[in-house]
Design goal:
Blueprint: H1 4-10, H2 58-67, E1 75-79, H3 85-94, E2 97-102, H4 105-117, E3 124-128, E4 141-144, H5 148-159, E5 166-170, E6 181-186, E7 189-195, E8 202-207, E9 213-222, E10 225-232, E11 235-245, E12 248-257, E13 260-272, E14 275-282, E15 285-296
Parallel strand pairs: 1-2, 1-4, 2-3, 4-5
Antiparallel strand pairs: 5-7, 6-7, 8-9, 8-15, 9-10, 10-11, 11-12, 12-13, 13-14, 14-15
Bound molecules: S-adenosylmethionine.
The site of S-adenosylmethionine has 24 residues, from α3 and β2.
Length: about 300
């Protein structure tokens, strides 16, 4: 359970409560910063099942929503949704469906009332439940404001979600899974952003557009970072900077020399299960390639 010291460290949230008419441009003037109402006034720092309730401050919430690059068909989940502010703001500002999972029944009921007052009750769902029991696998975007150990406990579940699922976490990271982006408003106000990477670790046979085998990829993966070797027409190159962003794979390849990396070309493609397709760029030439996973090693995301 959280101590008062940790609460102090989490920082006092700004409880700016204002509402303004939504405009078509979006922006911070739309922020819904509603907390309690006549029926229930939660207290910042009150006990929760695994972590206390502290609402994400308005400007950080806005930055987190922007980082998620929300699209009309997204479904956002806030795991431990408190008064519902992230769910309500996502639904209202981006016109999407959003779901909160919250253990505290009074916060769940308050969030439902807040959503109704904000006019987004049809787009929002608040589930009274435990984030470690409830299913959120249909989320395409996930918001967290928990604790380091809770993030680590959720990490395997999040990494098994559909590649391309975006995740933001107020304050706390995911241990060995490096963030794709760190959002920093000031030295003590930050959030982290990740995209769930597709699994690519293994040996891939590369074919050109006439189905001739032109080479092989031997990929090693640590979360979104990819290394290994690529063999093109018999020549072996090292993958110098490889990266996944969801299903998208990019790398440069070349040779490591005593004087630094000598790049020979690059590859951009898409990975779906055991198939890969993309473009190999070498000098001014481009070649369309497809890849077939020959020997999978289902690792790289642990
Ligand atoms: C730090 S608050 C964040 C609230 C909200 N997500 C936000 O950013 O404004 C964490 C919330 O998680 C809830 N919570 C704690 N453990 C939980 C669990 N196991 N399942 C569901 N909710 C939980 C708490 O009641 C609290 O409302």
């Amino acid at each position: 359970m959280i101590t008062a010291g940790l609460l102090a460290w989490l920082g006092a949230p700004r409880l700016i409560a204002w509402r303004s008419a939504p405009d078509s441009e979006g922006g911070t003037d739309q922020i819904q910063a509603i907390h309690g109402d006549d029926l229930y006034q939660p207290s910042v720092g009150q006990d929760g099942k695994n972590v206390i309730w502290v609402p994400t401050q308005d400007d950080l919430m806005q930055a987190m929503l922007e980082a998620l690059n929300i699209q009309p068909d997204d479904i956002l989940y806030d795991l431990g949704s408190g008064d519902g502010k992230i769910v309500i703001n996502a639904a209202q500002q981006y016109n999407i469906n959003a779901v909160g999972i919250e253990y505290d029944p009074q916060l769940v009921e308050l969030a439902k009332r807040n959503a109704a007052r904000a006019g987004v009750e049809d787009q929002t769902t608040f589930v009274r439940g435990d984030i470690f029991q409830e299913d959120f696998s249909n989320a395409s975007a996930v918001a967290l404001y928990l604790l380091p150990e809770l993030n680590l406990k959720l990490k395997p579940t999040i990494l098994s979600m559909r590649p391309g699922t975006r995740v933001v976490s107020n304050t706390f990271d995911m241990g060995t899974w490096p963030a794709d982006t760190t959002i920093e408003l000031d030295r003590s106000t930050r959030a982290y952003y990740w995209v769930v990477p597709a699994r690519v670790q293994g040996r891939w046979q590369l074919e050109d557009s006439t189905n001739n085998t032109v080479g092989e990829l031997d990929l090693r993966q640590e979360f979104q970072l990819v290394g290994g070797e690529v063999v093109i027409n018999g020549e072996v190159f090292t993958i110098l900077s490889g990266r996944m962003e969801g299903e998208a794979i990019t790398f440069t390849y070349g040779h490591r020399t005593a004087n630094g990396d000598r790049s020979h070309g690059s590859f951009q493609g898409t990975v779906r299960a055991d198939r890969l397709q993309g473009t190999l760029n070498k000098q001014a030439k481009q070649q369309q390639l497809t890849g077939r996973l020959r020997a999978s090693q289902r690792q790289g995301l642990t």
